[in-house]
Amino acid sequence: MISIRQRLLIGLLAGLSGVLGLSGYATYRQARAEINTLFDYQLRQTALAMRQQNLLALALNREADEGEGDLLIQVWDRQRGLLYVSRKPWELPFATEPGFADLLWQNERWRLFTLPAGDRIVQVAQPLQVRRRMSTDIALRNLAPFLLLLPVMGLVVWFGVGAGLRPLSRLAADLQQRRPEALEPVAAERLPAELTPLASALNELLARLTQTLDAQRQFIADAAHELRTPLTAVRLQAEIAQRATADEARAETLDTLRAGLTRASHLVEQLLAMARLDAAPAAGRIELLDLLDLAKQGVAGYAAIADDYGLDLGLLPSDAVMVAGEPGELHALLGNLIDNALRYTPTGGRVDVQVRRVGREAVLSVTDTGPGIPVEERERVFDRFYRGPHTAAPGSGLGLAIVKRIASRHQARVGLSEGESGGGLRATVCLPIAP
């Protein structure tokens, strides 16, 4: 695994090498341009000096000059007759156009200057490889100090990056030395600006973790408290049934025992549902659902229980509305609303379910003719395990808490109000309509 220091070192050295390469190329191009200008000037001055030279003197001095320098001098007459050439092996063809020209002759490139001078034509030429070699030498001489300093720059970058990353190492060491239960915020006052976002994110994570752990501890404590009562009652009813001698007393005790087991089972199911909702970060498999079909299924599922309670459970005229949601969670939401309404509605009452389209929202409502909930308690009933002081119906205090949790996971709103006739309770859930 490559560390941040190694990555920074490799990246910075690669960048410096790239900059040096570009600088070398730019220096080479600049040196070549300057050398070309200088040598072009030399070619022109040499040609100007040669236009009045005595050819006999040039011929006598040619053997002495043979092999020296890198210039080729040729003198022609107007009939293209070669009067003089300084180096016979380098002899170039006749050039008709005056001025500078680039020439390719026998696989070698030349820079040529032609000067008409009366009845003569003077040509001065030079191999281009001489210019390239000199340009390269100048560029390398300019870059040599930087190439020698590259290892030194690598060491400076290595130790500089290490010093810059030292606060990160201290932060990591501080977190490693903490006890598992130590969730205090990380001190971010003395950290560099680059580490402040990391420290802030860590502190936010620690705060959420603290809140989650506190909620779990409270949930476990509340669950233990709520389970203690029904389980104690079940144990006592079992002991009474064991001591009962008459069949009628035993049957009555067993009925009470069965009811206690039903309540305990319902509480465990709701505890598991709440635990699953807390564990899952977001709604699971999202699908397009017809809320009216969901309401019909919910009414059909609780019809037998409503008959057993002597209640009228039905579906009012509704609108077919499509919403996006997790099917299991929305079924649980409606089921808890209907179950709550059935539990708190006295015999002979009624529970109505309805789905309506209101603007860009789908409104699911469950209305009962029970005792209702006082206005001052309508916010608290969504708390876990909360049961009003005058509540007589059996329950765990988790139904509306589950409804609230599922609604928040679907970006929905939950509200409680009085029924249309001024009594009972109406629970409404407003969900966004699927596009």
Topology:
Blueprint: H1 4-50, H2 55-65, E1 72-77, E2 82-85, E3 99-105, E4 108-117, E5 120-127, H3 128-176, H4 196-243, H5 247-279, E6 287-290, H6 291-309, E7 312-315, E8 322-325, H7 327-344, E9 350-358, E10 361-368, H8 399-409, E11 413-417, E12 425-432
Parallel strand pairs: 7-9
Antiparallel strand pairs: 1-2, 1-5, 3-4, 4-5, 6-8, 9-10, 10-12, 11-12
Percent of residues in beta strands: 15-25%
Please report the number of helical segments: 8
Strand order of the largest sheet: 2-1-5-4-3
| CATH architecture field of the largest domain | 2-Layer Sandwich
Class from helix and strand fractions? alpha+beta
Overall geometry? elongated
Largest sheet: 5 strands, antiparallel
CATH topology group of the largest domain: Heat Shock Protein 90
DSSP E strands, number? 12
CATH 4th-level superfamily of the largest domain: Histidine kinase-like ATPase, C-terminal domain
Which CATH first-tier class of the largest domain would you pick?
A: Alpha Beta
- Percent helix: 40-55%
Evaluate the radius of gyration: 48 Å
Q: Tell me the domain tally.
A: 3
Q: Strand-and-helix sequence, N→C?
A: HHEEEEEHHHEHEEHEEHEE
